[in-house]
Amino acid sequence: MTSLTPLASAQRQPAAEQRYFIAAAVVAALVLLYTQLQRIAEFVTYDVAGLVRGSHLGSAVEFFAFEVPKVLLLLTGVVFIVGVLRSFFTPERARQLLAGRREASGNVLAALFGIATPFCSCSAVPLFIGFVTAGVPLGVTFSFLISAPMINEVALVLLFGLFGWKVAGLYLVTGLLIAIVAGWIIGRLKMERHVEPWVWKIQSGSAGIDVKRTWADRLADGRAAVREIVGKVWIYVIIGIAVGAGIHGYVPTNYLASFMGRGAWWAVPLAVLLGIPMYSNAAGIIPIVQALLGKGAALGTVLAFMMSVIALSFPEMIILRKVLRPVLIATFIGVVAAGILVVGYLFNAVL
Amino acid sequence: MSTQERIEILGPGCSRCKQTFHVIQQVVEQEGLAIEVIKDESIERMMALGLMATPGVAIDGKVVISGRIPKPEEVRHLLGIA
User: Fold this and answer.
1) Is A120 in CB contact (< 8 Å) with chain B?
2) Does the structure show a pLDDT above 80 at A253?
3) Which of A57, A112, A141, A161 stands the most exposed, by the fewest C-beta atoms within 10 Å?
């Protein structure tokens, strides 16, 4: 009954080299295009559309024509590379490396793995049980669970594309620090008894996945990641940049500065509180972030808001309720929210 | 005729798990295989198999896919028919 279609196998084999050559050519062309985006945007805005340089509409359109292709190109490239890299990291492997680790060094490693390992909140429960029953300390497990959603490639690319590498870098570093410290604190609090008791009774196997994966498979993973992630977020990116373009051209700067600027002490806690029940991916939140920043809200306040939205999500808490008792969930939210608060104030003070 | 008997799709019932189930069921139907396709949503089974990312696929109790939706060609390959 192995009625394998000869077409499928014939298609896959012949032109592998040729296809790599074409792919390389496409990448080179895209890189070249990326370097020329500013010129193209100016050409489209002022020569094709005939808008006046320095006008409100002109600068809004130029901003849009430059940023949309820039961010989408960047996003596609980064998501592809991350997709390929992630094929090397699996939660199963992370568990193997974290099991029996001590706290501190374990928290650091777990937070780093959290960035590299593919994760969706629907996997939070099996991941949690798999980790703790294999002897990964509770606090170390939390470091992983905090960093995995908070630091993701979409957030980093958007921050880099729209606000520059400094903001993206600060986000990465402080997000990691929150994951490490919050996990460590939860570990120190010895909250194992606030994990639902049935969790500890589960026998977990350690079946490794020993299917050999080729580079072609990994590149296919990268393409799948692009289809899945870029396919989902492109519309948010365009809306976000359109909002940003409007602000760029029209809204006077410092419009919001009076009540969301660094002067208002309550702005950061309010931002964190507002962020917890909101559930969105990094791409969905960027339009808001950009709108707030563009009108003069302080960067620390805005980053705190963004972290709160993507790291503390209400649906994920409901999923985790299956394995965690309310006290531990409250502690988790409290410790992470406190970390985000500190980051918010820090940014407002330093920048 | 392939020698496998049982293919399990593991996951808490999220949309990605359902997609995985459809991909596999389609392959099994198209190839006319006599394989039992089971959708198991229990955490216990996932843990027993050592699986930590969903969706997951196990063939005869051995995990072959973890945390992603497989392509039809891949499923055929895993079932030893392509």
Assistant:
1) yes
2) no
3) A57
